[in-house]
Each structure stands twice: as structure tokens, then as C-alpha cells.
Write a structure and sequence with these properties.
Length: 112
């Protein structure tokens, strides 16, 4: 596998930080054998469909959702959705396990 020789590249990459973002170590899923850049990162298929559906063209930068560039696993849905917790709580009344927290949002709303 690529990472057998490129583990240091993976560990030391900071834009974005592959290790903290929990990117797969299958380099070929984003990179080609000819060059590291440009990479083809499939955010929609691997994590959340942010480039398609209702979210398409609604954001400008990764920082719109990921406030901690050292940890892309840290994200927020609540910056854009449901600024009013009382309204969100009312809309989810009776939903088992509901919590006003972004990871909880993603557990029930894995697609836009």
C-alpha cells in the first residue's frame, strides 16, 4: 500500500491535517500515482454531502463548518442551522435520544 512508504507524508500533512481529520490511509482514494496535488477528496461520499444537495454553494471554506483546523473531526452544524435552541428543541420534541449538538445532528441527518 502507499502508506507503507508514505506514512511520514500522511502524518506530517497539515493542509488539512490528515491524522486529526481521520482521513483514510488509502492514499489512492484521493491522490494519483503521478502527483500528490491536485487531490480528489470525496467529502460527499466519505463524510457528508456538502458539495451537493441543499448545501451546494452555501459555504466558502472548510472553516465554515470546521472551526478547529487541527481537528477536522470537530465540526458544527449549529453555526448555520437552528441558531435558536428553543426552536430546535420544539421541532425535536419526542425524538428519542435528541441532543442539541452537532454530532447528534449528524447521527440522524447523515445527508442534506
Amino acid at each position: 500500500t502507499c502508506v507503507g512508504c508514505h506514512q511520514n507524508d500522511y502524518n506530517n500533512t497539515s493542509n488539512p491535517n490528515h491524522a486529526s481529520a481521520n482521513f483514510p490511509t488509502d492514499c489512492a482514494s484521493c491522490h494519483t500515482e503521478n502527483a500528490w496535488v491536485p487531490a480528489n477528496f470525496d467529502h460527499d461520499g466519505m463524510f457528508f454531502p456538502i458539495y451537493s444537495g441543499k448545501h451546494r454553494n452555501k459555504w466558502n471554506d472548510c472553516r465554515d463548518c470546521h472551526f478547529n483546523p487541527g481537528n477536522y473531526a470537530d465540526f458544527s452544524c449549529l453555526n448555520c442551522h437552528e441558531h435558536n435552541r428553543n426552536k430546535a428543541d420544539d421541532q425535536h420534541r419526542g425524538v428519542q435520544g435528541y441532543v442539541y449538538e452537532s454530532n447528534a445532528c449528524l447521527s440522524c441527518h447523515p445527508s442534506p
